[in-house]
Design goal:
There is one protein chain. This protein is globular. It has a 7-stranded antiparallel sheet with strand order 19-18-15-16-17-14-20. It contains 7 helices and 20 strands. With 325 residues, it is an alpha+beta fold. The mean pLDDT is 96. The longest helix has 17 residues. The two termini are 37 Å apart. This is Glycine cleavage T protein. InterPro entries: YgfZ/GCV_T_CS, YgfZ/GcvT. It comes from Legionella nautarum.
């Protein structure tokens, strides 16, 4: 299948149809999405669970053959290096963006060697997203959907896990993928990763990019509300900073969604400034185009913030149109 490419912070996302049609989804229809921007990092060894428990932000002891967890890796300053899903299907795996795979492997590799754990990039599977709005409409063949959030169902050939009651991720062996996607193609219910990105962003599921790796503190992107952080487990890299922020700091920022219009190029990680005194009021975390010059943006911004801002290195005033925060 031929895909068009769209770039968000230099990350290549795919589209099946012309832009306007790609982002237009019919109500009461289910859709399958190409997520070829995602890949898997396998963690191999008898001590894989113990190793991950000491490295990442979620409680890996809660991961099982039927349950996943969502987590983050942080640097020693407590800033987020990557977000991923942690599953134990055919061994422990981290599902994350391709363009963060090598950097994540490198940041974990020294401790992995000391823990007698091997890290291995795994490209044996195709990864898809599924959006459920109608249980009576088209469903993924031979991939029963889990009934509860973070639950996982699996076979030898594939696995499917839920993000919530509408969104699911499927990993399937490459030689089996054609039979999965063909019915959705025939019914015009197959889309690329750009449409998936827009859907996820409307639910405040943001992405970390190579350009924003190591910039954001977890609380600035609401990871304390999304389930990515465990405050009951032991230490992990950056944990002291994360815990101090959670228990001792007064939070002043929250993750909010806005619609903006601009003709200038957006870049995640840019700071937002007030017009009157040029004080910093937030940061641009993630974005997705909606129409020409119109964008859905996720920003970490002061709870009490102006309705107009300037974006770092830009001169045009940006009006923040609230979207269901």
């Amino acid at each position: 299948m031929n895909f068009s490419e769209y770039f968000i912070n230099n990350r290549s996302l795919t589209a099946v149809l012309p832009f306007a049609e790609e982002l237009s989804l019919e109500k009461n229809k289910n859709y399958l999405f190409d997520l070829s921007y995602l890949s898997s990092l396998k963690v191999i060894g008898e001590r894989a669970e113990e190793f991950l428990q000491g490295q990442i932000s979620c409680d890996v002891h809660k991961v099982s053959a039927s349950t996943i967890q969502q987590g983050a890796s942080c640097n020693l300053k407590g800033r987020v290096l990557a977000l991923f899903d942690v599953l134990n299907w055919q061994g422990f795996q981290l599902i994350l963006a391709n363009d963060l795979l090598a950097a994540t492997e490198h940041s974990l590799s020294k401790t992995a060697m000391l823990s007698r754990v091997k890290l291995e990039q795994n490209r044996d599977y195709q990864i898809y997203g599924f959006y459920l709005t109608n249980p009576k409409d088209l469903l993924p063949a031979n991939n029963p959907l889990p009934s509860t959030p973070l639950a996982l169902n699996s076979t030898e050939q594939s696995c499917c896990y839920s993000l919530d009651k509408q969104f699911y991720i499927l990993l399937i062996k490459k030689d089996q993928s054609a039979s999965l996607i063909q019915p959705f193609i025939e019914h015009q219910q197959f889309r690329g990763s750009l449409a998936w990105h827009q859907l996820q962003l409307t639910h405040k599921r943001i992405q970390i990019y190579p350009d924003t790796r190591g910039i954001f503190l977890p609380h600035r992107i609401d990871l304390h509300l999304s389930g990515h952080l465990s405050f009951d487990k032991g230490c992990y890299k950056g944990q002291e900073i994360v815990a101090r922020t959670h228990y001792r700091a007064t939070l002043k920022h929250g993750l909010k969604l806005f619609i903006i219009e601009t003709t200038e190029t957006l870049s995640a990680g840019k700071k937002l400034f007030a017009l009157d005194n040029e004080a910093e009021v937030g940061e641009l975390i993630d974005y997705c185009p909606l129409t020409s010059n119109r964008y859905l943006v996720a920003v970490s911004i002061l709870f009490e913030h102006p309705s107009q801002v300037l974006i770092e290195s830009q001169t045009k005033v940006i009006c923040l149109e609230a979207m269901g925060n």
